[in-house]
């Protein structure tokens, strides 16, 4: 597994998402300000709805722009055993049932799924329960999180 390649995949995914959302936000803005959508009576809400959509999409554009900026400034140093798992580390976990998964601990962009070397990598942040539990852990350490009242246990198999 190549952490630098995974990092580049993350940045590319965020750039593509940002581009798509910027175009969608522009389209929503144009619909909201189009003279055809001016309300003719109090029940005509097409312009108002388009305005709400444009506002929400503009917020989402800014969120993705900030996530991209944060991930671009993230260092991709090799795992440092003296500090344990930190933001920027790529971690292989094994669940109690034997299932393995890769997670990439980043400052932002939680929930993204990346494909690298036929492996799905889930982006998580230290703000998530799993991310918070992993910070400062070492290979072979166990972490437990509670999700919906159920306790899940993971073993740190590998860190990059």
UniProtKB/TrEMBL annotation:
UniProt keyword annotations, A-Z: Elongation factor, Protein biosynthesis
GO MF annotation list: DNA binding; translation elongation factor activity
Gene3D superfamilies: Transcription elongation factor, GreA/GreB, C-terminal domain (3.10.50.30)
Keyword Phosphoprotein: no
InterPro entries named in the record: GreA/GreB_C_sf
Superkingdom of this protein's organism: Bacteria
GO biological process, one term: regulation of DNA-templated transcription elongation
Name of the protein this chain belongs to: Transcription elongation factor GreAB
Organism: Pseudomonas helleri
Lineage of the organism: Bacteria, Pseudomonadati, Pseudomonadota, Gammaproteobacteria, Pseudomonadales
